[in-house]
Amino acid sequence: MNSINSKSDIEASLVSILTDLIGLQSDYPPGDTVEICKYTEQRLKNLGYRIKNHMHVTPINNLIAEMGHSSPSVVFNVHVDTVGPGLLSAWSGNPYRAEIKDERVYGLGAANCKGSMALHIWLAEEISRRGGIRRGTISFTFVGDEESLGPNGTKSLRDRSIIRPDILIVGAPSSNDLLIDERGVMWIRLTTCGTGGHAGDPASADNAIDRLVRLLSFLEAEIFCKLKDRKQGEILSTANVGKIHGGTNTNVVPVEAVAEIDRRLLPGESVDQALDEIQAALRKSGEPEDSYELELLVGTNGFKGRSDGQGVTAFSEAIRQRLKREPCFLTPVGAFDGRHFVDDDIEIINVGPGESSEGHAPNESISIDELLDAAAIHLEVINSLLGLNS
Question: With 0-12 CB in 10 A as exposed, 13-18 as middle and 19+ as buried, what is 4?
Fold first, then answer.
């Protein structure tokens, strides 16, 4: 399918949109997506889409732009929140001001995931410019609460049946290759308690941090160090202690200590099983059961996709046409919002421009050539699945 726009016009449009998006702060915390959704709505509101905003918790807004009324329902999804920039001294420039250098766009969120957001906005505009789709329904969803793995973004849209896709295409920094498998993700909080006392006489008290260290060491020996033996092909089962805090002052024996743990699950492992495994290990630790508490913060199961699905087939052919090679099916590392649809028997594809290693890193950037390739690939997929009027 030949594009009406020239390469230079497409590049200028994509880079301009991405530049605007980088300048609109949507860091988590607090994950405020009001302004960035307002910008997107202004661009799309007069282009033939039904526009809706869904804000279940302030300031996390989710914007939906929809066209068509029949099957199949193809939903494009991208998260519009980012992590924070971290140490500003690690950036060579202002993370909120896009910089173009060596055919790349630099700025916070350039790869994860404002590059895909710019792509989806461009796609929505290009579809309208071509007169719309010939069949089915296309929806573009711009969501928040992804970086916190929270319930108020894509999950809320799915749980309330606001979107009901047959094919879900999730924007992800995959260098335009395909992620159709996903690990489950479980976040848990382990809290230990003790009795306070003076640091000069620690034996008279019960140190909650000491207990937490003992329990984490026990979990490491019982479970975590053995996870390396659990794998499906290149997909790994993992655990990571990501946060620890406790105590009030150096000269006080701490009464409470907390650790938060990220556990990634193979598609065949369930959250319930993984949680039960950790609870059983804690009971074997020898620590009094009333001296600690285990809390599930987030939990979704993984899935394995089909390489012969209608959407995957369309992407595979478009990749062959554009990149002159076979598509690669990547090994999952991160967690994407498609996991909320794991029980819905739909096709889920994670794909987009940008390298996964760039996300959450200082001086984050994205290749302009990858943006252009993504535009051509995605537009061909839409034409294959839904048809375009010109």
Answer: exposed
Which are the contacts of 272, defined by CB distance < 8 A and separation ≥ 6?
Answer: none
Note whether 346 and 163 are within 8 A (CB). no
**Please, which pLDDT band fits residue 334 given cuts at 50, 70 and 90?**
confident
Give the residues across from 73 on adjacent strands. Answer: 137
Angstrom distance (rounded) from CA 209 to CA 219: 15
Both tokens assigned to 371? 């943006």
Per DSSP, the three-state class of 175 is coil
Contacts with 46 (C-beta within 8 Å, 6 or more apart), sequence order: none
- Is residue 119 within 8 A of residue 372, CB to CB? The reply is no
Which two three-digit tokens encode residue 115?
């590059």
Per-residue pLDDT tens for 92-144? Answer: 999 999 999 999 999 999 999 999 999 999 999 999 999 999 999 999 999 99
Listing DSSP states for 266-286 in one string gives -TT--HHHHHHHHHHHHHTS-
How many angstroms separate the CA atoms of 98 and 17, rounded?
11
